[in-house]
Amino acid sequence: AAKRSAAGRHIRFDSTMRERARERARVEQELRTALVKDELVVHYQPIVYADDGALKSMEALVRWEHPVRGRVSPGVFVPVAEDCGLIVDIGRHVLRTACRQLAAWRAAGVVGEDVGVTVNVSARQLEQSGLAADVAAALAESGLDATPAVLGLELTESMLMNSPNSALDRLHELRALGVRLLLDDFGTGASSLARLRRLPVDTLKIDRAFITGLGRADSDDDAFVAAITSLAAALRLETVAEGVETDQQLARLRELGATSIQGFLFSQALPADEFARDWGAARR
Ligand code: C2E
Ligand code: MG
Ligand code: MG
Ligand code: MG
After folding, report:
1. For 56-97, what is each residue's pLDDT tens digit?
2. Is the confidence metric ipTM above 0.90 for this complex?
3. Which of 41, 144, 181, 218 would you label with 114, given CA atoms 20 to 30 Å apart?
4. Could you say which ligand is closest to the alpha carbon of residue 245?
5. Which residues cross the membrane (predicted)?
6. Closest ligand 1 atom to Cα of 185
7. Residues within a 6 A CB radius of ligand 1
C-alpha cells in the first residue's frame, strides 16, 4: 500500500508539473502578442521625500491588461518573460513609455523639472549588449537627453553581486549616459560590501521585508534599517524605503534618516491619467 501511494504521489506530482509547464507555455504564447496588441501598460507609483512628502520621482511598473484574465500582476508574467527572453522587448517598451510620459508631464507642467522616473531592469537586459543603446534612444526620443539624471534604472542586488565584471562595465556605460542607478530590493541578496563599494549606484532601495516591523518592539527591523541608512550615508548614497504602509513606519524612517518613501501610505501605482490627477502640480 505504501508503494502504491508513493507511486500515486509521483503521478500527481508529474501531472502538476505538466500542468504548470502548459500554463507557462500559454502565458508565453499570449505574452508574445500582448506587446503588439498594446496590452502591456505602465502604472506609476509616487516616491516622496521623507521630510516633507513632496514628490521626488515615480517608479514605472508594468501591468498586463489581459482581455480575458483582467489585470495580471508583473509577479506572474515578468518571470516568464525573463525565462523566454521577451523581457528585453518588454523592458524597452516600458523604458520608452516612461521617458515619453515624464517628458509629456514636464511639458504640461504636471510635474516639475526635478521630478524623475525609475524603470526596473532585469538581469537578461543587462546581459544583452544593446541596453545602453536602448536607454540612449529612449532619452533622445523623449528629449530627456538634456537632463538624463531624471531617469533612474532599478537593478537588483543579486544580479550585480553574482555577475561578472562585464556587468560592471555595463553599469559604467549606463552611468556615462548620465542616468541614475538604484539598487532595488536592497538587503534581500547576499551583498558583499567590497562589491557594493565598487558599484556605481546612487541609491539603495530598502526592501519592504525590512520595513514591515519598523517601530515594533518585537522586530529587528529598526536595527537593520539603521544599519542600511548609516551604510548609505558612509557611501554617500540616497535611500528609498519600499512598502511603507503606516504612519509609525514613516516616523521611524524619518528618525533613521531615510531619504525618501514609497508605499501604499502615500499611494499605490496608478494609471497615468490618475497619477496626473492625484499627483499633478495642480492638486495643491
Ligand atoms: P519592485 O521593483 O520591488 O516594485 C515594488 C513592488 O512593491 C510593486 O509591485 C509595488 O506595487 C509594490 N508595493 C509598493 N508599495 C507597496 C506597499 O506599501 N505594500 C505592498 N504590499 N506592496 C507595495 P508590482 O507592481 O506588483 O511589481 C512587482 C515586481 O515586478 C517589481 O518589484 C519588479 O521586480 C517587477 N516589475 C514590475 N514592473 C517591471 C518592469 O517593467 N520590468 C521588470 N524587469 N520588472 C518589473
Ligand atoms: Mg523596482
Ligand atoms: Mg523593489
Ligand atoms: Mg521588491
Report:
1. 999 999 999 999 999 999 999 999 999 999 999 999 999 999
2. yes
3. 41
4. 1
5. none
6. 3
7. 45, 61-62, 73-75, 78, 87, 91, 94, 120, 122, 154, 184-185, 242-245, 262-264, 269
